[in-house]
Amino acid sequence: MKFDPASNIQDLAQFGEFGDVNPSITDSATYTFMEAKTMVDTFHGEQEGCFLYSRHWNPSNKYLADALAAMEGTESAWVTASGMGAITSAILQLCNSGDHIVSSITTYGGTFAFLANYLKKFRIEVSFVDITKHGEVESAIRENTRLIYTETMTNPLLQISDIPALAKIARDNQVKLVVDNTFTPMIMSPAKMGADIVVNSLTKFINGKNDCVGGVICAGEDFINSLADVNTGSAMLLGPVLDPLRSSSIQKNLHTLHIRMKQHGHNAMYLANKFQEAGLRTIYPGLSNHPQHGLMKELMHPDFGFGGMIAIDLETSDKASVLMEAMQKVGVGYLAVSLGYFKTLFSNSGKSTSSEVPEDVQKEMGLSEGLIRFSVGLDHDIERSWERIAACLESLGCR
Ligand code: PLP
Q1: Per-residue pLDDT band at 355 (split at 50, 70, 90)
Q2: Nearest to 268 by CA among 211, 223, 174, 205
């Protein structure tokens, strides 16, 4: 039977201690034990179903983690206080001092900074490659390489990673494939295509309300258990745990994700066509001239569209600023970083979410200084939104 992330979430039977239709919120940091031996066994990971301390596991977090594991098709998951908490915990769990990573050069700026700057503390080296060039990926692998890192749809250039091909390279070289699925939840299922570990920022589409930050690591049971190990687990020892009150609200929002992704995709497809017709350089994987349009069609679940992210190129950051300010004024959306919100958000990537990437590297990866990244909202009348954008473009002389 076809893997169906939305139905997997719908089929979850998660309810509270009094039959409440939403799981109860466990508002406790610690847990009592009737017998001292059970506590000792739980510490040693030998007691199933017992909770020890909420930095280790919390029942509300477990409900959300189970739901996200069902969505990604992994055995298990662990929820974190942010997407960066998920990315950094997963990488630090896999790597030791002196190890090496091969990463896509286009990734979220925070991830890039962690890989390029922070990991130097541990003498972990990173080779950055064009993730669409598999020869480059293969030849960057060394004896001490532990993992290949990529994003399903890269931020901000919206390249599509060929997960099955990268998984084969990883398997052949006995390294792990770690994939950030933040731009394409529901649309792509990287673990079902061979990724070993899938991370997501819940802050974005999955929660969809921009009221909190959160993250998740989805993987096999052994890896998730290793993260929570009381002696050696990066999640347990670094402590990036999600607050259970937030877990509970994100868990409810997850149940509408499939509907929201369809609407984000529908609206983005409409705007991408309009931007292109207006003569602007437009990057959107749903357009037939996108270099990985065919690949995306092969890999995606067809029910949820091509995603809510679009990039257009205004060539200079000054022009981009004028357009963004004008669009905000007429109510297109907000000039703000982040994505996956019910309102349209736009920002100039090179000066914001990719500003951690040095300018020469931005040039090398093909990131124009005038690139505006749009996270298209859930607008009911997207034609009306386009008319507003078109008027702004016209006043700038861009149409
Ligand atoms: N991954 C991607 C692709 C992102 O765009 C971001 C943030 O913008 C993150 C991870 C980090 O997530 P968070 O802000 O929840 O830490």
Answers
A1: confident
A2: 205
**Ligand 1 pocket, residue 182 CB under 6 Å:** yes
CA pair distance 65, 373, nearest whole angstrom: 30
> What number does the ligand 1 atom closest to the CA of 202 have?
15
Dump the DSSP string for 129-163.
E-TT-HHHHHHH--TTEEEEEEESB-TTT-PBP-H
5-254 folds as Aspartate Aminotransferase; domain 2 (3.40.640)
Quote the CA–CA distance of 38 and 134 in Å, as a whole number.
50
What is the residue with the minimal CA distance to atom 13 of ligand 1?
A: 83
Name the fold adopted by 257-396: Aspartate Aminotransferase, domain 1 (3.90.1150)
Q: At what angle do helices 59-72 and 244-254 cross, to 10 degrees?
A: 30
Q: Cα dihedral angle (328, 333, 336, 340), rounded to 10 degrees?
A: -170
Q: Rounded mean pLDDT of 84-98?
A: 98
Contact 110 CB / ligand 1 (< 6 Å): yes
Closest CA to 304 of 189, 213, 224, 223: 189
Residue 50: its pLDDT value, please?
Answer: 86
CA atoms of 318 and 190, how far apart (whole Å): 37
pTM for this predicted structure: 0.97
Residue spans in the chain of domains classed CATH 3.40.640.10: 5-254
Q: Which structure tokens are listed for 362?
A: 């931005």
Instruction: Indicate whether residue 155 lines ligand 1 (CB < 6 A).
Output: yes
**353 C-beta closer than 6 A to ligand 1:** yes
Which of 88, 41, 86, 33 lies closest to 64 in space, CA to CA?
86
| CATH 3.90.1150.10 location in the chain | 257-396
Contact between 255 and 25 under an 8 Å Cβ cutoff? The reply is no
Q: What percent of the chain has pLDDT over 90?
A: 89
Asked whether 246 and 210 are in contact (CB, 8 A), the reply is no
